[in-house]
User: Fold this.
Amino acid sequence: MVCFPETAEQVAAAVTVAARHARPFVARGSGTGLAGGATPVGRPVVIVTTHLNRIVDVDATSRVAWVEPGVLNLDLSRAVAPLGVHYAPDPSSQAACTIGGNLATNAGGPHCLAYGVTAAHIVAVDVVLADGSATQLGGMEPDQPGYDLRGCFVGSEGTMGVATRVAVRLTPDPPTIRTLLLDFVTVEDAGATVSGIIAAGIVPAALEMMDAEITRAVEDFVGAGYPRDAGAVLLVELDGLDAGVAAQVDAVRAVGLAHGARTVRVAADDAERALLWKGRKSAFGAIARIAPDYYLHDAVVPRTRLVEVLQQVYAIAAAERLTMMNVFHAGDGNLHPLIVFDAREPGIWERVNRAGDAILRACVDAGGVLSGEHGIGLEKRDAMPMVFTPDDLDAQARLRDAFDPSGRANPDKVLPRGSRCGELQRVPEGAWI
Amino acid sequence: MDLTATRTETDVQAAVGTAGAVDPVGGGTHRAVGNPVLAATPVAAPVGIVSYDPAELTVTVGAGTRLGELDAALQAEHQECVLDGADPTGTVGGLLAVGLSGHRRLRYGPLRDRVLEVRFVAGDGHVVRGGGPTVKNVTGYDLPRLLVGSFGTLGVLTRVILRCQPQPPSVGWFATALDPAAVRARCFQPSTIFWHPAAGTRVLLEGHPDDVAAQARAASLLPADGPPPRPAGPHQGRISVRPDRVEALGHELASIGGLEWVAEWGVGTVHVAAPTVAAVAAARAAAHAAGGWLLRTAGAPELDGFGVELPNGALMARIKAAFDPHGKLAPGRLPIPHPEREAS
Assistant:
């Protein structure tokens, strides 16, 4: 059952009807999520938010906008552009994904390195809880008394209720932006440059890496002027005020050259800057020319172990005879191994899935986490015990139950079955000492 | 009080498991913030910097670590956590528990944005870890943000991972008679704008020295020797109000006899202090009239710490019960309706 509410009241009514019939419900925006958080499981009422797509209010002085959850990420930034502000989180799907979906998955994007992920940009949320009641979490005041319910709700992937209106922070446009493309013979050199930039006291607005395979694929597709023979390229964006940005451009150039950069290209104007970004953002279009299907992973490792884990990723691909490309947020250690394949090939899914599991294991063993920006959803639900103890998962399950005692808000997502210690025969009180 | 008995996470577990009610205690610098803990056994968190890798821009510390010790370690590597705690003898865990953001919030965001991972002992004695060691992470629910500002009522923080950043190349305080809104419009990302109608506007700019100088020129700012003096007095509070109501609230506060105050423009935080409890009570009334609230931060024992009912109190009570089913942790500190009371 699918409904398309146009008002918050209709959302509440849909949730109430679901409650009356003891049916689960799942909210869905544009459906661009990659972890299956909005995938219907167990015959839920699907609440599609695409008709809740109004920008309700923009306060240029307080730099806050109230929007409905179905507003597209890029539409919001375009709408507020005349005010000299933008919405900072910029996932690759920003032309299609909704603010509600961004909120649910705590979405990221290249510019989250300097500006933070979605959680840092949500001021308040109007929500409908699983019992059909409506309330506001967070608020316009800088602090609310009591627990940070807004913070809990962001990234909860629809398991705590449905957002009906979201207050987002707007970020002033930086006066100066410079974008650099550095190319290297090896990913090791590119990785050392990433660490060197941070060590020089610079946190770029964005710091993206593309390996040899994807660089070639993108260049063939877009013609952005990326060197086709590079072992890896770095796309570095620096923003702020004139003198600081100029000094950082010089510093990044010096760090790159010290680590074997063959060329350092600084975009001369906005058109060239846009072209360099077009290469990065067209990566997924480019791979369609190579094979019809892809599986995009998302995991984070400590920045200093990036290259080492990348080598393991290549070894895993070789062992499974898979084509693997890497285009990712190097600055915050957020890997996105991309397996490119043809699903019609017999037995391919087993190899793809086995490789995916091995990649996750390698990331976790390096001290990383399961997801940097896509979320857990269904995809990684059963991997949660790789990074959390039974007690950790029990605490998360209790938090979820506090929001939704009925367990009907997007069930079977995020937490694996058995997360509640009670489900496993809880240890008697006091016995743990 | 001797708190040296609880110095490891296992000690904290044992204390939470065996004592009746427990009172998480750090440096004792935030005891007057909010409501006092009812009778309870004090428990201290582990002390010390566990690991610090400047290249990762993260630091792992025992929650009992003094803010001054952490600042010194970061400063040696030209980094900072932007905790901006008022008192270096306070602890990391204590500051996070009360959740008081520092004065550079306008640029760097609230305190809770700095916390990547928390470890704590929940009310049932189990150790729980939430969040993760990397700056980017959406693995599971955001327990770090939940714990920040929870006043020790959901768990005793034992260890946290904080996000660091490079120190700015230069910083400068400036004074101006300009309207603070004009300052904000003319400067890119000022770190702080302190405002008081009589004392004027003080601005903190950070960045490349040439940029700081150029911004100051563009907004007609004059060099100042530092931030404005903090409001002083035995009775203190912190108002939280919509940023666009600060100016109107300020004019109300100006009419309260003996009250000293300064506002964080663009944020909505107003620090107040007074020689009398009555003046703080009047400031609270003004805050309520402006749609905000006042957290008592020092003195004023006659006043309730919060002065308002918690929004979504029933939901908060369920969260409290989920983490502390027997109500052992910091009883009385937050005005959360007790689940048994709620049920009865």
Q: What stands out?
A: The two ends of chain B are 37 Å apart (CA to CA).
